[in-house]
Amino acid sequence: MITYSKKAMNNKLNPQALRLVGQPMFRLLEDVKKLEAKGQDIVHFEIGDPDFNTPSAVVEACIRSLRVGQTHYTSSYGLTELREAIIDHTYQELGFKPSLEQVLIAPGANPLIYFVIQCLVKAHEEVIVSDPSFSTFYSVLNFLNIKTVRVPLKEEYGFRMNPQDLSKRITPQTKMVVLNSPHNPTGAVMTPAEIEAVCLLAKEHNFFILSDEVYHLMSYGVKVASPGVHDSCRERTIIINSFSKSFAMTGWRLGYIIGPEFLIERISLLTQTIISCVPSFIQWAGLGVFDVPDEEIKAMNEELRLRRDLLVDGLNQLPGVTCLKPQGAFYVFANIQGTGMTGEQFADLMLQEAGVALLPGSNFGQEANGYVRLCYAVNCDRIKEGLSRMNGVLSKRLLTSPSLKAL
Ligand SMILES: Cc1ncc(COP(=O)(O)O)c(C=O)c1O
Fold first, then answer.
1. Domain 6-53+294-396 architecture
2. Ligand 1 contacts CB of residue 132 (under 6 A)
3. Whether the CB of 331 sits within 6 Å of ligand 1
């Protein structure tokens, strides 16, 4: 058998392919799978995948559509019926009605991040992203070799993007600013005044705002503001949204974009070229989302709020750990600097010794080495179990390692 060195293989590739880094989280998932294969019980705080079942209105809509033969191509913009439902939903949530040509259906929010940046940003232009941030933003920008300008999010500012910090990073090359509120990985929700300040900067300096709103419906006691209301997504605001998180539909792969018509037209051509369309029956299932009773969504959010409170209170009692209480999404971003460990050491220790899977802050940027992200997509009993195991490991460490700080 002929064996090739990695270097020789890499030489065969388009250099751009070597710029692909993927999502660091998937590396930890491999380790978790190995431990579970050996029979170890793991408490899962790592994946941002709601543990609720997809609402039955969605499942039934899908089955009905399959039974009547909705198994063919659709327009690459998506089904008109679903786009119209999204227009109505946008009106209810944000108070403006985009045109049909401003709305396109996609297989989740993730590919849309790539489609937007690929269609809009030129080689010499810059994109401003928060640090920490959802890793796809960095990965796509790295793949496309576009300069990423990072705005550090500060814990003392509630991990929200501070418009003043943002304004210091704007240059004539700034083409786009990425907002994500509620935020992954911190759960931070920007205030309406902060969002408005970013919109004013966008107008003044003529850049686009890519607003990733996949957690828009997941907030606790606050109303989430969107930059889309300032220009109805007609000029410079692009909203990306998804059914993955709010409706427990991560595996269905269904999302949408609202943006200026000239951009959406290009994205429809890219969709046509690469994926043709989202499967027809998945889009019909998506229409079922608008039949989900409000009480069902409220009940999911209420359960998430209880979990958040339990997790944050418990984390704040662990030696060397402090944690803010975020107002949205389903993540907490805990400060573990008092343990004397980096986020990676902490995540490794918890996986190996406590059977608790969580993600180091370094998976989300360069500014978050002293933090870890926990997702509360597990029930209250499992949260208690995870906290108790972490407490056991940290308390033992405290006895053997007096250097444990901040106690
Ligand atoms: C901020 C953010 N945007 C997009 C996505 C991807 O969502 P989707 O499942 O719709 O591709 C995620 C998933 O974790 C996310 O956190």
1. Alpha-Beta Complex (3.90)
2. no
3. no
Secondary structure (DSSP) of 260-288: -HHHHHHHHHHHHHHT-SS-HHHHHHHHH
Contact between residue 102 and residue 258 where contact means Cβ atoms under 8 Å apart = yes
Q: How far, rounded to the nearest angstrom, does the alpha carbon of residue 296 sit from its chain's CA centroid?
A: 22
Asked if CATH classification 3.50.50.60 holds for the domain at 72-291, the reply, yes or no, is no
The per-residue pLDDT for 406 is 43
**Where do the structural domains in the chain lie, given as residue ranges?**
6-53+294-396, 72-291
pLDDT for 398 equals 78
Kindly report the pTM of this predicted structure: 0.95
By most ligand atoms within 8 Å of CB, the mutation choice from 104, 134, 178, 246 for ligand 1 is 134
Span from the CA of 223 to the centroid of ligand 1 (angstroms): 20
At 407, the pLDDT band (50, 70, 90 cuts) reads very low
Mutation probe of ligand 1 site: the residue of 129, 218, 245 with most atoms within 8 A of C-beta = 245
Chain Cα centroid distance, residue 84: 25
Mean model confidence pLDDT for the chain: 94
Buried b / exposed e across 325-356, counting CB within 10 Å, b at 16+?
ebbbbbbbbbbbbbbebbbbebbebbbeebbb
User: Does residue 278 line the site of ligand 1, with CB under 6 A?
Assistant: no
Phi, psi for residue 344 in degrees, rounded to 5: -70, -45
User: In 3D, which of 120, 72, 89 has the Cα closest to residue 278?
Assistant: 72
Atom of ligand 1 nearest to the CA of 134: 1
Burial class (CB in 10 A: 0-12, 13-18, 19+), 122: exposed
Rg from Cα positions in the chain = 22
For ligand 1, whether the C-beta of 250 sits within 6 Å is: yes
User: What residue ranges in 174-294 does DSSP mark as E strands?
Assistant: 174-179, 208-212, 237-242, 255-258
Does 244 contact ligand 1 (Cβ within 6 A)? yes
User: 38-77, pLDDT tens digit by residue?
Assistant: 999 999 999 899 999 999 999 999 999 999 999 999 999 9
Count CB neighbours of 385 within 10 A.
Answer: 17
Nearest atom in ligand 1 to 110's CA: 11
